[in-house]
Write a structure and sequence with these properties.
There is one protein chain. The protein is an alpha+beta fold. The protein is 25% helix and 32% strand. The chain starts with a strand and ends in a 7-residue tail after the last strand. Helix 3 links the parallel strand 4 and strand 5. It has four helices and nine strands; from the N terminus they run E-H-H-E-E-E-H-E-H-E-E-E-E. Strands 1, 2, 3, 4, 5, 6, 7, 8 and 9 form a nine-stranded mixed beta sheet that branches. The radius of gyration is 15 Å and the shape is globular.
Length: 167
């Protein structure tokens, strides 16, 4: 198993993984449109011994109250069913967080299972007076600071790029 930054040749494998992993084509179409518009800040893949993509996580820019604060959103995260339960998702996220931290990004938000993301250091965003535009997501919307001062004086609406609104 190899965890690494995605490269162009990975795109078809990522697309196939996302189509297998989620109901419908929404996540695959989202990543494709983000990629086409240059809006994937970082993509990390897990490949098996034959080089096939078996896991993927993407990070894309978000703003807070209309300001660019070097924050990104984590979405989607997928691991092939045959490889689940081996900690690959955790490894993908940690590799992404480490790289983003090295690149100087301040914080990461995600919309997902609090039990899963809580184990990865994410906290409820509402605790910091942060929210996203989608109603009923308060419990699932979470944040993980990368910089010590990332949450100082920051509050309000966190907005993903428009591609997420087509979802």
């Amino acid at each position: 198993m190899l965890i690494r930054v995605e490269i162009g040749i990975d795109a078809p494998g990522i697309d196939a993984l996302l189509r297998r992993s989620f109901d419908g084509d929404g996540e695959a179409d989202l990543v494709q449109s983000l990629r086409e518009d240059g809006l994937i800040t970082l993509g990390v893949v897990a490949t098996d011994d034959e080089g096939q993509v078996v896991g993927y996580v993407a990070f894309s820019p978000v703003s807070v109250e209309g300001e660019e604060l070097q924050w990104v959103g984590l979405a989607p995260l997928a691991v092939d069913k045959a490889y689940q339960g081996q900690g690959i998702g955790r490894q993908l996220v940690y590799e992404g967080l480490d790289s983003l931290n090295e690149f100087g990004y301040a914080a990461v938000v995600t919309l997902g299972d609090p039990a899963l993301y809580g184990k990865l250091g994410f906290e409820p965003a509402a605790r910091f007076d942060l929210r996203c535009r989608w109603p009923g997501t308060e419990a699932a919307f979470q944040v993980r600071p990368l910089a010590d001062d990332a949450l100082n004086g920051v509050h309000g609406l966190v907005e993903y790029c428009d591609h997420f609104n087509r979802f």
